Amino acid sequence: MGDVLFYNTHLHITTWVIGIILFFVVLNFVKKSNEKAAKITQMVLRLFYIFILVTGALLWFNNYMGTGGGTFTESVVKSVAGIWLIGAMEMVIGFTKKGKSTFAGWLQFALAIILVLALGFGRLPLGILP
Ligand code: HEM
């Protein structure tokens, strides 16, 4: 079980770090109106959303399903905030493409990433294993 958890948190961390970097790469291509590069990198980013979701869901099912109490609640809030962060990244990219104000998207990005990092590293027990 220890081995499974080890690979699991590292996979999750790897996927969301790459995802967040890709988000900024896509945003940069969109801003520079490099439509072809933006389209291709956004496809890769969306593939990484799936990797993030799957590795996060695996962590959740392996460690929290059927448990209860405060840590369980925090794990649910952490997971929902992770999904929210993905939504916020899509919003920022979408608003940028349409030339709209990105404020609402960035505000959500900021709130969601604070929640996710505070709960993921500050509160929940797995952290970076071992
Ligand atoms: C971009 C989105 C996300 C980011 C930045 C993020 C970030 C993190 C961080 C920093 C941790 C703590 C380190 C670790 O144990 O791996 C973590 C753990 C975790 N994440 Fe995510 N995550 C994201 C998406 C998700 C999603 C979508 C889910 C659920 C479907 C999820 C579920 C979990 C769970 C269950 C843990 C284990 C918490 C623990 O016990 O330590 N995450 N995530």
From TrEMBL:
Entry membrane topology: Multi-pass membrane protein
Protein origin, superkingdom: Bacteria
TM helices/strands, residue ranges: 13-31, 43-61, 76-96, 103-124
Entry's family note: Belongs to the UPF0344 family.
Compartments, as annotated in UniProt: Cell membrane
Keyword tags: Cell membrane, Membrane, Transmembrane, Transmembrane helix
Keyword Ribosomal protein: no
Species, as recorded: Piscibacillus salipiscarius
Record-given protein name: UPF0344 protein ACFSW4_11085
Primary site of residence: membrane
